C-alpha cells in the first residue's frame, strides 16, 4: 500500500464529505477511493470513518489521524512547491489586500523596495479594512491583523503588535491617571467598534491575574486613526495597536496608561490560499515581508 497516497485519499474523503466527490477531486474511481480507505483502516487496525447512506463522520481515531496528516500533506506539498518554484522567477501581477492604517504606515514604504528587487512583478494593492474572501475576490495574498491564525488559509506570522492603553498628557493633567482598571469607569474613553468584547476591556496584570472593566465610552469608531486623533486632541483614553500609536508614544504626544496591565497582543500575518503550487511571486513577497519585519518591529522602537 502506498501510505502517502492512502493518507491523501483519506484526507480528501474527509474534506469533500463523500467517496464520490473525493474520487472526482482525485481524478479516480469511487472504487479506488474505497479500496485505499479500507486498506488504510486494515493497516492501522482501526475504523477511521463511520459510513451511512446519508453522510460520513470521523471516528475518534479518524479525527486524530486527519488532524495529523493534514500537516504532513501540507509539508510535502510545500517541499514540492519549493523545488518546482526555485527554477521560476517571480513575475506577473500580484494582487494584495491589507488593512488601511497598517498598509499606509508600514507597507507603503516597502513596495518600492520589493519592486526594485523583483522588477518583473506588477503590484496591485487594495487597502480595505474588512476581511476579504481571498479566493472569491481574486487576491493572491492578504495581510491580516488578528489574535489567531486563519482556519481557512495558510497564515505566516510577520510580526507582533502590542495593544496599548494611552492618552494625551493634557487629558491626564486635567483628569488624573487611573491607578487600576476599575477607575476607567470614571474616565472618558474612546471605544473601538470592531473590538470583540465591545466596551468590556480585558486586562492581565504582571502577576497573571485577569481584570475586566466596563469602559465609559462616549465616543465609538471603527477606525484606529480616528481613535488616535481623538486621543491626541485630549478627548480621552484609548487602546490601539502599537503599530498605530508607537510613534506618538515614543515622541511623548501620547502617554501609556496602566502600564502594569496588559491587553492581548495581536499578530500581523501574511495569509494565502494554499501551500500547494505556491507561485514564485507570492513566495517572494512573503519571504520579503518576513525579512522586513524581522526582530523588534519598527513601531515598538522607543516605546515603553
Tags for this entry?
single chain; 304 residues; alpha+beta; Arc Repressor Mutant, subunit A; D-Maltodextrin-Binding Protein, domain 2; 3 domains; 5-stranded mixed beta sheet; 3-stranded antiparallel beta sheet; 10 helices; 15 strands
3D architecture notes:
With about 300 residues, this protein is of the alpha+beta class. Strand 1 (about 50) and strand 2 form a beta hairpin. The protein is globular, with a radius of gyration of 25 Å. The chain has helices spanning about 5-15, 20-25, 30-45, 60-85, 100-105, 110-115, 170-175, 225-230, 240-250, 280-290, and strands at about 50, 55-60, 90-100, 120-125, 140-145, 155-160, 165, 190, 200-205, 210-215, 215-220, 240, 255, 260, 265-270. It folds into 3 domains: about 5-85, Arc Repressor Mutant, subunit A (Orthogonal Bundle); about 90-160 and about 265-300, Periplasmic binding protein-like II (D-Maltodextrin-Binding Protein, domain 2, 3-Layer(aba) Sandwich); about 165-260, Periplasmic binding protein-like II (D-Maltodextrin-Binding Protein, domain 2, 3-Layer(aba) Sandwich), CATH 3.40.190.10. The strands form 5 sheets. It has a 5-stranded mixed beta sheet with strand order 4-3-5-15-6, covered by helices on one side.
Amino acid at each position: 500500500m502506498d501510505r502517502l497516497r492512502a493518507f491523501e485519499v483519506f484526507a480528501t474523503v474527509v474534506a469533500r464529505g463523500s467517496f464520490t466527490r473525493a474520487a472526482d477531486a482525485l481524478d479516480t474511481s469511487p472504487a479506488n477511493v474505497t479500496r485505499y480507505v479500507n486498506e488504510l483502516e486494515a493497516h492501522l487496525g482501526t475504523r477511521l470513518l463511520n459510513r451511512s447512506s446519508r453522510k460520513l463522520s470521523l471516528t475518534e481515531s479518524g479525527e486524530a489521524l486527519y488532524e495529523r496528516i493534514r500537516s504532513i500533506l501540507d509539508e510535502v506539498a510545500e517541499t514540492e512547491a519549493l523545488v518546482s518554484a526555485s527554477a521560476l522567477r517571480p513575475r506577473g501581477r500580484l494582487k494584495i489586500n491589507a488593512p488601511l492604517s497598517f498598509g499606509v504606515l508600514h507597507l507603503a514604504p516597502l513596495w518600492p523596495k520589493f519592486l526594485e528587487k523583483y522588477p518583473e512583478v506588477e503590484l496591485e494593492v487594495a487597502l480595505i479594512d474588512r476581511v476579504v474572501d481571498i479566493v472569491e475576490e481574486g487576491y493572491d495574498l492578504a495581510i491580516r491583523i488578528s489574535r489567531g491564525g486563519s482556519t481557512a488559509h495558510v497564515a505566516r506570522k510577520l510580526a507582533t503588535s502590542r495593544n496599548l492603553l494611552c492618552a494625551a498628557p493634557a487629558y491626564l493633567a486635567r483628569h488624573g491617571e487611573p491607578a487600576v482598571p476599575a477607575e476607567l469607569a470614571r474616565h472618558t474613553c474612546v471605544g473601538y467598534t470592531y473590538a470583540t468584547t465591545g466596551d468590556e476591556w480585558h486586562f492581565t496584570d504582571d502577576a497573571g491575574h485577569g481584570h475586566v472593566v466596563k469602559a465609559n465610552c462616549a465616543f465609538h469608531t471603527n477606525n484606529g486613526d480616528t481613535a488616535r486623533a481623538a486621543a491626541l486632541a485630549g478627548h480621552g483614553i484609548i487602546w490601539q495597536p502599537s503599530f498605530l500609536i508607537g510613534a506618538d508614544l515614543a515622541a511623548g504626544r501620547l502617554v501609556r496608561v496602566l502600564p502594569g496591565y496588559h491587553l492581548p497582543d495581536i499578530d500581523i500575518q501574511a495569509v494565502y490560499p494554499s501551500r500547494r503550487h505556491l507561485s514564485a511571486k507570492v513566495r517572494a513577497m512573503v519571504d520579503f515581508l518576513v525579512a522586513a519585519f524581522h526582530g523588534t518591529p519598527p513601531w515598538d522602537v522607543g516605546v515603553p
